[in-house]
Amino acid sequence: MADITPADTTQADTTPAAIATQFRQWMVDHAAELQPFRSEQGHTMADMYAHDRGLMHLLDDAGWGRYGWPEWCGGLGGSPVLRGVIHDELTAAGVHLPEAYAGLEVIAPMLLKYQPDLAEKLLPLAIRGDEVWCQGFSEPDAGSDLASLRTRAFDEGDHFRVVGQKTWTSNGHLSSYIALLVRTGDADSAHRGLTMLWVDADSPGITMRPIMCANGREEVSECFFDDVLVPKDRVVGEVGGGWAVVMYLLQFERGNYAWQRQAVMHSRLDETLHWARRHTESLPPDAAGVIGDAYLTLMSLRAKARSTMRQLAEGVDLGPEISVDKVLLGVTEQQIEDVVRGLIWPAVELDDDHEANITRHRWWYSRITTIYGGAAEVQRDLVAQRVLGLPRA
Amino acid sequence: MELQELELVRTSLRHLLASTEPAQLPLALVEQGWDDLVAGDPDAVIAALFEEQGTARVAGPALDVVMLAAIGAVDPSTHALVVAPFQRDVTCSAVRRDGVLHVDGLALAGCDRADRFVIGDDSTVWTVACASVTVAPTGAFDPAFGLGRVTGVVPIESATAIAGAQEWCDAIAVGRRALASELIGIGQHVNTITVEYVGARVQYRRPIGSFQSVQHRLADAHIALCAARDAVITASEERDEWSAMTAKALAGRGVLQALANCFQVHGGIAFTDEHELHEYFERATMLDSLLGGHRDLAWAIGSQLLTEMALPRIPRL
Rounded to whole angstroms, how far apart are CA atoms B316 and B142? Predict the structure, then answer.
C-alpha cells in the first residue's frame, strides 16, 4: 500500500474537529481506494468480515484506525472520542462501517482496563481486522438474566477447566478470542460467583456452530465447551469479579456502540432521502412528517450517545442511567428501519436485488436491537428501580 | 456559570416568578439584574428561568423578554410581542397587503403593560400602538395561561419598522429553545410527583409503583425527558434555527408523551379538578402549540430534508 498517504500524526491539533477535517480531506484524496467499501458487500457474515478487512487495513496503515487507542497497544493516542469521530466521518462519506468495529468498541475497553498485557499484544491485530473478538455471555437458560448462567470453570491449579454452553454469541464462528463469562462460584452464587476469562477460540474442546437468523445471515453462534483448559493468566479482572467486569463492558455497549449505530443510521436515512428525492411521486402522503419524526428520534440518540461517550472517555462510571441510552438505541433503530421500509415500499416485500436484500436484512436486524445486550424490558426495569427509585415487586 | 451559582439564580428566579404579577415581570427581571445574568451565561440562565416557570406553572411574558432581546431596540416593559397564531406553517403575526398590516396573532399574559405591540410579517418586524388592534382573551383549553388573540388592520404609516426577517427568525429560535426548557420543567415536575404518587398509592396490597407496567410507563417518561434535554443542550451549542426547531419538537413530543403516561398511572384522581395534573397537561399542550407544535415541526423538518438539504449530523463531536 505504498501509494496511501498516512495521517500526519506529528501534528499537534488532535481535537475532534481538527481530526475530522483532516480525515475528510484524506477520504477525498483517497476516494478511489475507498470506493470498494461504499456499499455493504457479501452475503454471509464471513464474506462481510473478509471484505471489511480491506478497509480496516487501509485505515490502520494510514493511521486513522488507530486514533483514540492508547499508544502502548498500537494506537496513536488521543481521546477515545476520536474513534467516534472516525466512525462518524466514515459513514458521513458513505463508507460502510466495518462490522468488526462494533465488537472492538465494546470489548477492547474491558481489556485495556482489566488485562492491559493482553491488550498490548492483541489490540494491534484487532484494530487491523486480522483478528475478531466475541462475547460469550448468554446461555440457553440465561439471556437477559445473565446472573443465572451455568457454564462452569473448575479451578485445577494453574488453569481452569470450562464446561458448558453459550449461545447468541455474535460473530462467534469468526472470532479468534472469546470474552467468556463463567461461573467459578457455587451453583447458587448468582452474580457474585462469576469470572471473566479470555479464551482462545481454537482451544481443544470448543465447538462453534453458526446459527442462521431471520435476516438470512449467520449473525450468532452457539458455542459448546467440553473440558476446555484456560490458563490462569487469562482471567480478566478478579476471580469472582466477573460481574463488575461485564458491567464495565456493558457501558460501552450502551454508549460507544450507540454512537456508532447513530452514525450508521444517519447515512441510512441520508441514502433513503436521496432515493426519496428522485421518487417523490411514489412517496406516501405523510412522508415529510414521518421522516421528520424519525430524524428527531435519531438526533436525540446522537445527542445522548455523545454525552455518554464523552463521559466514558473521562472515566466516569455511569451506573444505571446508561440504560436510557440502550432503550433509545433500540427504539431509534426500529423507527429508522420502519421508516426506510415504508418509504421504499414495496421493495422489501417484492424485490430481490442487492439493495432490497440489504434493506431486508437491516430491517430484520433492527428487530433484535431491543433484545440483545439486555432486553428493553430489563432496561426499563433498571431505569424505574435504580434511577427513579421505584419499589421492586 | 458554576453549578452552585446557577442554583442560587434558580432560587431567586423561582421567588420572583411566584411573587410577581405577569404585567410587572419584565421590569422585575431587570431590577433583579437579569441583563447581567444573561450577558454572563445566556443559555444556562434562560433555561433556568423557563424550567422554573414550567415547574411553577406560571403564566407571563418571560418569553417576550428573551424574544424581544433577540429582535433588539425595544423595551419589554412597554412592548409586548405578538407571535403567530396556532396555524400550520405560519410563523408571522401579520400579513402586509395593499399598504396595510393585517394583524393576527397571540400575546402572552400581562400584555396590558404595553403601549405598543411588536409584530412580524415575512420581511419586517414592526411596532404598532396597542390601541390600534383588538385583544380578545382566549380561555379555551388553558384559561390560566391568559393568552390574548390580537387582531386588527393597521395602516403601514402608523407602524414603525424596527427590524427585518432575520431578527424575527432569530427571535423565534430563541423562543423555541426557551419553550423547550419550559416544557422540560413541566415534564420533570410531573415525573417527580408521579414517582412519589405511585410509591405511596397502594392497590392489591402493594404500592402500584412496584408493578412492572407502571414502572415501564415512568421509565419511558424519564427516557423521553432525557432525550429532550440533550436536544436543548445541542440547540444552545448550535444557536441556529434548525436545532431550535428540533429541541422544541423533541420537548413537545417527549413531554406530552411523559404526561400521558403520568396521567394514566395516577388513575382517576388525575381526572379531577382537585388534582394539579390536568393543569400541567393543559399548559404543556399550549406551550407545545406555541411557535409550532411538535407534529408541525416534524413535518417542517421532514419537508426540508426532502427538498435538497443534506442530513445534518448534530450535535457535533
Answer: 38
**Chain A residue with minimal CA distance to B249?**
A296
Whose CA is closest to A317, among A167, A95, A113, A24? A113
Question: What contacts A274, CB < 8 A, 6 or more positions away?
Answer: none
Helix (H) or strand (E) holding B214: helix B212-238
Phi, psi angle pair for A206, to nearest 5° = -100, 130
Long-range contacts of A108-112 (CB under 8 A, 24+ apart): A108/A69, A108/A133, A109/A80, A109/A248, A109/A249, A109/A252, A109/A256, A109/A312, A110/A179, A110/A196, A110/A236, A110/A245, A110/A248, A110/A249, A110/A252, A111/A198, A111/A236, A112/A70, A112/A73
Is A280 buried (19+), middle (13-18) or exposed (0-12) by CB count in 10 A? exposed
Instruction: Indicate left, alpha or beta for A190 from its phi (over 0: left) and psi (-120 to 50: alpha).
Output: left
pTM value is 0.96
CB B246 within 8 A of CB B301: yes
Beta strands B124-129; B116-120: pairing state: antiparallel
How does DSSP classify residue A344?
A: T
Tens digits of per-residue pLDDT, A366-390?
Answer: 999 999 999 999 999 999 999 999 9
Residues on chain B touching A292 (C-beta within 8 angstroms): 249, 297-303, 305
Three cell numbers written together for A124: 494491534
The candidate with the shortest Cα–Cα distance to B130, out of B20, B288, B283, B23, is: B23
Q: B residues 223-262 near A, CB within 8 Å? A: 223, 226-228, 230-231, 233-234, 246, 249-250, 253
- Cα separation, B301 vs A210, in Å, equals 43
- For Cα atoms B146, B151, B155, give the angle at the middle one, nearest 5 degrees: 140
Query: Burial code of A185-209, b = ≥16 C-beta within 10 A, e = fewer?
Result: beeeeeeebbbbbbbebeeeebebe
**Residue B213, H or E segment:** helix B212-238
Rounded-to-integer distance, Cα B121 and Cα B105, Å:
11
B269 near A CB under 8 A: no
Burial of B124 (0-12, 13-18, 19+ CB in 10 A): buried
Mutate to test the interface with A, among B176, B193, B206, B223 (most CBs of A within 10 A): B223
User: To the nearest whole angstrom, how far is the Cα of A167 from the nearest Cα of chain B?
Assistant: 28
d(CA A358, CA A360): 5
List Cα–Cα distances, A162 to A93, A150, A189, A195, B66, in angstroms. Answer: 45, 11, 17, 11, 66
pLDDT tens track for A275-286: 999 999 999 999
The answer to whether the beta carbons of residues B103 and B136 sit under 8 Å apart is no
Report the distance separating Cα B175 and Cα B241, nearest Å: 10
Written as one string, the DSSP assignment of B42-67 is: HHHHHHHHHHHHHHHT--STHHHHHH
CA proximity to A253, closest of A134, A150, A103:
A103
Q: Which residues of B touch A291 (CB under 8 A)?
A: 301-302, 305-306
Angle formed by the axes of helices B212-238 and B165-200, nearest 10°: 160
The nearest CA of chain A is from the CA of B111 a distance in Å of 34
Give the pLDDT confidence of A40-53 residue by residue, as tens digits: 887 899 999 999 99
Task: State which amino acid sits at residue B219.
Answer: A
Grouped pLDDT means (10 residues each) for chain B, 317 residues: 92 96 95 93 95 97 97 95 95 96 98 97 98 94 96 98 98 98 98 98 97 98 95 92 97 98 97 97 98 97 93 95
CB–CB contact B206 A388 (8 Å): no
**How do B148-155 and B134-137 pair as beta strands?**
antiparallel
* C-alpha triplet A206, A210, A215: angle, nearest 5°: 160
